Amino acid sequence: MAEVLTIGRAPTPSVDAKRSAVRWLSYAFFAMALLFAAVAAALGDVFFFRLATESLIFGGLALSVDLLLGRTGLLPLGQALFFGFGAYVSALTLKHLAPSLPLALAVVLVSGTLVGLVGGLIAIRAKGVYFALISFGLAQVVSKIVFNTRELGASDGLIGVPAPVVSLGVASFDTAHAPSFFLLVLAGMAALLALLMRLMDTPFGRQLDAIRTNEHRLAFLGFDPWRYKLAAFVLAADIAALSGALYPMLRGFVSPELMFFQVSGNAVINVVVGGTGTFVGALYGSALLTALKSVVGSFTAHHAIVIGALFVVSVIFFPKGLVGYLAPALERLWSRR
Amino acid sequence: MLDWLQFVLAPQVVNGLSIGVAVVLMALGLTIIFGLLDVINMAHGEFYAIGAYAALALIGVGLPFWWALALTPLLMAAVGYATERALIQRVFHSKDRHTLTLLLTFGIAIVLEDILKIVFGANPLRIEQPITGATEMFGLFFPNYRLFLMAVGAVVIAAVWLVVFRTRLGAMVRAAAFDRHMAASLGVPVSVVYAGTFAFGVALAGLSGVLLAPIYSVFPTMGRDFVLIAFSVVIIGGMGSIKGAVIAGLLLTQVQSISSLVISPVWSDPLLFGIMVLVLMWRPHGLFGRLGHG
């Protein structure tokens, strides 16, 4: 129970079975999401569509945290910095350049890579807890600057961001239409998840696993861990920024709160509760906690205490997270047959 | 020029010093906890806030400020001891205690902050200044309470130094920090030392909260910005170094208060952070070594 999270273990013989269990859980997640969409669409609902879309978007942020925490062994406590950055850049692009989704995503990708490089050059220098604290400090400082910059709307943020229409040749998606946007974001997250899981099977992915397990040994083998860590950091920054880019399309505004520690912390909670290092666990965690927040929130304004207590309990007693326990259970079930 | 030194710079230096003493108390708690337990206490800012609220509550039931000042650290030590025994030591023996304890204290911070909101509400509250008036020195008036704060802080810092480096108890703490197995086999009750150290660090955070409560207003998230400064201090001074926390704490708060004469206070956090990054580029483990290590 104890040796989890960022500790790497040598691949066990059942690694393929385990991976297929995780893959099956990924299919199950998207099947459930589609089922939800069908039911919600049949009921003509908007509120829950928006809520589910938000949970997917924050799930994207959690995916970027899992890439660093679960695969590379770096604990980012300020990943909301890149999420908020993507949201602001996307809002500015949609508002002042053109209300176009591909354009917004392209601008966010390019600028997110640059910002990720700068942030990475600062943060990757530090190891272990120093990295966690520096990423925390970076986000804190930038969010404070944004909070005090009048050109960016200061504490109010940017409002009145237009929702773009995406034309896909035959059909066109209106991002203001809740069900359409949900499906669009769902497809985006599925692509992202597939990409990340594929990436982990490449040499690059194996290097990241090796860094988590033993950084010094990787250096002895002639690889420069710094380069791989930087690449992982930039990739995670891009994923967070692209997820953030979707936020203003959903809500029509951005605010400095998106960069606050609350958001970074929630992303880490999503990952740990969902299952560190499993990727799809990040999406499960985000969905689970969004649902929980919505249910608890309907009784009391103090949902943080419930979420926090759940998090404390899950760190102490279930450090592997939801998927971290479900996947081996599935495996056992299959092997028994 | 001389007037500027006397009437602009000097008061700012004194103000910075009074905040600096409180920051050093915070940072000492963080650094001692890390130096001994390897735990990054993400809930330190919340313990600071609880200290301020505890003083507020004690004054609210009719006790004078001085009683609150004396009782709060004791109360906070009990809270810290219970936290360590009930929660932190459960994940302490895993291989990856850095990450797990950091996540755990982060969860504790969320819970504590919400408890404060439920019990006291989200609005800022105030404590009356227990010492009013000002003292004239070098043709300048300094608020008496700030002078008092500095005196108390200096005494506590000196006492911590003495206890850690000059007493048998301190030797046990340092021994446990250096090699807990060896310390345990020499008869040091390591688990009690651990819990006691955590309690002590939490008490320091609480003391800092009480001392600053009459200067700042008291609200549930008051610890967040403050703990960021304390973390910068600890990182620059070296995680786990007592000397580093004191020196970096006083220096950084001076930089902050003097720079606010020239630049907008909004930029003082980025400035501190920039200094931290530069120090880390030059010395990745901070300026001074860890507790118990040379």
Strand percent estimate of chain A: under 5%
Sheet-strand content of chain B, in percent, reads: under 5%
Number of helices of chain B: 11
Q: What is the overall number of helices of chain A?
A: 13
Specify the overall morphology of chain A.
Answer: globular
Q: CATH topology of chain A, which one?
A: ABC transporter involved in vitamin B12 uptake, BtuC
Number of strands of chain A: 4
Q: Give the fraction of residues assigned to helices of chain B.
A: over 70%
Name the poorly predicted regions of chain B: none
Distance between the termini of chain B: 45 Å
Uncertain residue segments of chain A: 1-13
Structure in words:
The complex is a heterodimer of chains A (337) and B (294). Chain A is mostly helical and 337 residues long. Chain A has a single domain (15-330), classed as ABC transporter involved in vitamin B12 uptake, BtuC, CATH 1.10.3470. Chain A has 13 helices and four strands. Chain A has helices at 15-42, 47-72, 80-97, 101-123, 128-147, 178-199, 203-213, 215-220, 225-251, 261-274, 280-297, 303-317, 321-336, and strands at 158-159, 165-168, 171-174, 253-254. In chain A, strands 1-4 form a two-stranded antiparallel ribbon. In chain A, strand 2 (165-168) and strand 3 form a beta hairpin. The longest helix of chain A has 28 residues, at 15-42. Mean pLDDT of chain A is 85; it is low at 1-13. Chain B is mainly alpha-helical. Chain B has a domain at 23-123 and 140-221. Chain B has eleven helices and two strands. Chain B has helices at residues 2-37, 44-60, 65-92, 97-120, 144-166, 168-178, 180-185, 190-212, 222-237, 242-262, 268-282; strands at 134-137, 140-143. Chain B has a two-stranded antiparallel ribbon. In chain B, strand 1 (134-137) and strand 2 form a beta hairpin. In chain B, helix 1 runs antiparallel to helix 8, helix 2 packs parallel to helix 4 and helix 3 (65-92) packs antiparallel against helix 8 (190-212). Chain B is globular. Chain B starts with a helix and ends in a 12-residue tail after the last helix. The model of chain B has no long low-confidence stretch (mean pLDDT 86). The A-B interface holds A 2-7, 69, 75, 122, 125-130, 132-134, 136-138, 140-141, 144-145, 148, 261, 265, 268-269, 272, 302, 304-305, 307-309, 311-312, 315-316, 319 and B 34, 40, 87, 90-91, 93-96, 98-100, 102-104, 106-111, 113-115, 117-118, 224, 228, 231-232, 235, 239, 266, 269-270, 273, 276-277, 280-281, 284-285.
